[in-house]
Design goal:
Elements lengths: L6 H7 L11 E5 L4 H14 L5 E8 L6 H14 L4 E5 L10 H14 L5 E3 L4 H13 L4 H5 L4 E4 L2 E4 L7 H10 L16 H16 L3 H28 L10 H4 L4 H15 L6 H13 L5 E6 L2 E6 L2 E5 L10 E2 L3 E5 L2 E5 L3 E3 L4 E4 L5 E2 L7 E2 H7 L11 E5 L2 E5 L3 E2 L7 E4 L4 E4 L3 E2 L1
Parallel strand pairs: 1-2, 1-4, 2-3, 4-6
Antiparallel strand pairs: 5-6, 7-8, 8-9, 9-22, 10-14, 11-12, 12-21, 13-20, 14-17, 15-16, 17-18, 18-19
Helix pairs in contact: 1-2, 2-7, 5-8, 5-9, 9-11, 11-12
């Protein structure tokens, strides 16, 4: 394959991670804007010189009154170039405080993960990398955040490639002009209420007026920070190996032997591997402070977005069900019901003079399980190793205000005073605990 002296084609041709062989399927994320249209035409030109398969995916967010027209434009453009194009229509969930930009981005990447092919090409360029560096700098990000937009990463089972990440937008505009390309303009890109647009239209122009090479310098700085982040990950892996117990889990006692910055680095890396997003640096600092002062009987909580991070029994526990609501009280009947910490299944029938019901355990209950001493439910479950934040969320089987059964402890010793016949014991399939 030859690309001549064309820098755009050369950038695509030499992009790391792309296989141009006959069995390769490259899918392009096509918005219809300048950047992705240039990348589409570049890929089509290279397709004449190599036997790879090419397709496109357009994500219809439904946020703009022009969204249908954009989808139609992408379909028509791909049809003219003999490129299969899939249009995916999204129904965006509630923002839940995340912000519309983030929710749309997350939904878009979920769609990309299901796209056909082994390689997904995105048209982010050097300006995007510079903008991302500034945005993350303003929110106080560390090396990983300042590294910003990687040129290659995994997305599910495919490689996500950004061939233009070192190409300035001006070069893409010039290439599009020379080749007389047409593209669409998203009106939301001019809305300065979006932070990226404010950086793009107000901050970067002011900076480049004084420092003409600022975009390239910022992009290079971002790439250097990505290298530093990789080295920090290696250090975190090395330090963590000396802080794991016989079960391969992080030990709070062993972590306490390290300097606090090293502890934070291990936590940051562990959260990233577990898919937990740290909403603000102060949460990470709060957690490391809790860890370093924890005693053997400590039970501490730091919230990381919708996930609770607990320090308990020398380990770090993740609670993704923290914000989930328990089912309301309901009459006992056969069937399966999902609870925040597992699945409760009722099989068979229970004969009683009054209606039995299922409800969360809550706090302050006492219980006398068969074959054991009567005690507070919290103490009985603590002895079973049930975490304190899980205990009040567990389902109990009740007759009026009398607790007759609960997971892990079974029936009350006097259950037959209330139930004439018991067939199958309720089945509780607990969700496995998540620990770092």
């Amino acid at each position: 394959m030859t690309t001549g002296l064309d820098p755009i084609l050369a950038a695509v041709r030499h992009a790391p991670g792309i296989d141009w062989g006959a069995n390769s399927h490259v899918c392009l994320a096509l918005s219809g804007g300048l950047d992705s249209v240039v990348l589409l035409h570049a890929l089509v030109r290279l397709r004449t010189e190599a036997p790879f398969q090419l397709s496109a995916i357009h994500v219809h967010h439904g946020l703009s009154p022009n969204a249908d027209a954009w989808a139609a434009f992408c379909r028509a453009l791909c049809e003219a170039l003999a490129v299969p194009c899939e249009v995916v229509r999204l129904e965006l969930p509630e923002t839940s405080g995340k912000g519309l930009e983030r929710v749309a981005r997350e939904a878009r990447y979920e769609a990309f993960a299901t796209a056909p092919g082994d390689t997904l090409c995105l048209a982010h360029h050097q300006n995007d990398r510079a903008e991302t560096l500034l945005l993350n700098l303003f929110r106080g990000a560390g090396a990983t955040g300042l590294g910003g937009v990687p040129d290659v990463r995994k997305l599910g089972q495919k490689h996500l490639i950004r061939p233009f990440i070192d190409i300035p937008r001006l070069a893409l505009e010039a290439w599009a002009s020379v080749h007389q390309l047409r593209w669409i303009e998203d009106e939301s890109n001019q809305n300065l209420a979006f932070r990226r647009n404010y950086v793009r239209h107000r901050i970067l122009p002011a900076v480049t007026a004084m420092y003409p090479g600022a975009v390239g310098i910022l992009a290079r700085t971002s790439a250097q920070m990505m290298e530093q982040a990789g080295l920090l990950d290696r250090l975190a892996e090395s330090d963590a190996r000396g802080c794991r117990d016989q079960d391969g889990l992080l030990s709070v006692t062993l972590l306490q032997q390290l300097p606090e910055p090293a502890v934070r680095n291990i936590l940051r890396h562990s959260f990233a591997k577990a898919g937990v997003q740290i909403p603000a640096a102060r949460r990470l600092y709060a957690l490391s402070a809790q860890l370093l002062t924890a005693q053997s009987d400590t039970e501490a909580l730091v919230r990381m977005g919708s996930i609770g991070v607990h320090v308990w029994r020398d380990r770090i526990w993740l609670d993704p069900a923290m914000d989930q609501r328990c089912p309301g009280e309901y009459a006992l009947q056969s069937g399966s019901v999902a609870w925040p910490d597992g699945q409760l299944e009722i099989v068979g029938a229970y004969a009683a003079e009054r209606v039995l019901h299922v409800a969360p355990l809550g706090h302050g209950q006492r219980f006398h399980p068969t074959g054991r001493c009567r005690d507070r439910v919290s103490e009985l479950l603590r002895a079973q190793g049930v975490p304190p934040w899980v205990r009040p969320r567990l389902p109990g089987l009740w007759l009026d205000k009398t607790l007759l059964w609960l997971p892990g402890l079974g029936w009350a010793s006097d259950v037959h005073q209330f139930i004439n016949s018991v067939f199958d014991e309720p089945s509780w399939q607990e969700t496995p605990a998540l620990r770092l």
